[in-house]
């Protein structure tokens, strides 16, 4: 699924009334499995499309995204082998990634 497809999914879900957040890879170090600009769209039920890490940290990102949807406040997440989450989630290929998670709001005329 391309980033355009993920963004179209986010728009479609939001315009249909679903509460949605989008996660975007904003920085990578080392051998991160997805490039900067990769997206994951998540709804408040935990459904998601896209990928920010090839399956390495998607579960943690989905959990955080549900919190972002609930609070309406964006957050920056960082994952890698050298941080406190290394035993909970990790990038199998090493490296580190930063993922920005923000709520999606659709303006209606």
TrEMBL record:
Residues 13-80 form the XdhC- CoxI domain. Pfam families: XdhC_CoxI. It comes from the Bacteria. Coiled coil: none annotated. InterPro entries: MoCofactor_Util/Proc, XdhC_CoxI. Transmembrane segments: none annotated. This is XdhC family protein. It comes from Roseibium algae.
